[in-house]
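To: structure desk
From: M.T.
Subject: fold request, one chain
Message: Could you run this one when you get a chance? Sequence is below, nothing fancy, just the single chain.
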Amino acid sequence: MAALPKPILPPRIARREISGIMFEGVAFDSRSHRLVVVDQPGGPGSLYADSAAAAKALGGIAAVNAGFFTPEGAPLGLVAAAGKISGAWNGASSLGSGVWHQTRAGRSAITRREALGRGKAKASRELIQAGPLLVENSRLVGGLDAVKASARTVILWDGGSRWWIGCTSPCTLAALAQALDAGEPADWTVRQALNLDGGRSSDLWISRDLPGGPILRRPPWNRPVRNFLVLSTR
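Reply: Done. Structure tokens follow.
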């Protein structure tokens, strides 16, 4: 007998401390809500000062900062926003080893760069190339940095329709991967976890439309960023 589909639950604020790391973000179901990329061709801050401004411009209910960028403000990796491509395929750096992508049919996934490939990546409707991967196929990724602690922005996926976007308290990449392997920030097992730009770029906004909102986690010393992931209703 085929398993019954999981019920579609409304987006909710999911906050949990695991192994001394605080996770705060929004858990949602991709059957009812979706992420879109908001890119700024004019460079960081040229259209939106922060995640709140980007989300409100699109009528979104939550947003985080997204991909890495160069000192000149260009994407460090490939970006697709409503099918428009910017940046270039990052085939070498660990900061481009993972890809969050959404097909033109609306299916989203987190995939290792080599498994997706440049051609399929450029055919995506929405895409952020970032990294490193923290969890892959429900197993923590080894060899991650265990020295530098920083605030992190992360996107998590259960391999099906359940997702989480948000930020963490300062931690190393190795400690973050270990915490995701040991616990569940959104009450489901993480199959894939991708690190986005963090540190002074880390930025989270959640609307007052969600119980417990509004929330803005963006210290005053943060820098403007190149792009955002905005959560909205399908």
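Reply (cont.): The mean pLDDT is 96. Let me know if you need anything else for the meeting.
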